[in-house]
Design the sequence.
C-alpha cells in the first residue's frame, strides 16, 4: 500500500523543489499531482529583483496584496492618531 503525504513545492528550472525536508532515498520514484490556484499565477518578472528569492510571493493574489495594504494603512493611521492625541495632552 502506498503512503500519501502532501508536500508543497516550487517548480524552478524544470525541477520540483520541496519547501520542507522529505525523507526519501535518492532516485525514489514518486507520483506528483499538481494543484495550483489559477488566480495566483504571477509572472516572475513582476517580482523584479525578488523573483526566486521568496517563492511564496508568487502565490499572493491581488486581493491578498490589497488586504495587506489596507492593514498597513490602518496601522499607520492608528499610530498617527496616537501621536496626535499625545501631542494634545502635553
Sequence:
Amino acid at each position: 500500500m502506498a503512503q500519501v503525504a502532501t508536500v508543497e513545492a516550487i517548480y524552478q528550472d524544470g525541477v520540483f523543489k520541496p519547501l520542507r525536508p522529505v525523507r526519501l532515498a535518492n532516485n525514489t520514484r514518486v507520483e506528483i499531482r499538481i494543484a495550483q490556484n489559477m488566480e495566483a499565477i504571477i509572472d516572475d518578472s513582476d517580482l523584479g529583483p525578488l523573483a526566486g528569492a521568496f517563492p511564496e510571493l508568487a502565490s499572493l493574489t491581488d486581493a491578498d496584496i490589497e488586504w495587506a495594504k489596507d492593514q498597513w494603512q490602518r496601522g499607520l493611521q492608528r499610530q498617527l492618531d496616537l501621536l496626535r492625541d499625545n501631542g494634545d495632552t502635553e
User: Anything to note?
Assistant: Residues 62-89 form the longest helix (28 residues). The mean pLDDT is 79. Residues 2 and 77 are 54 Å apart (CA to CA). The first strand starts at residue 9 and ends at 12.
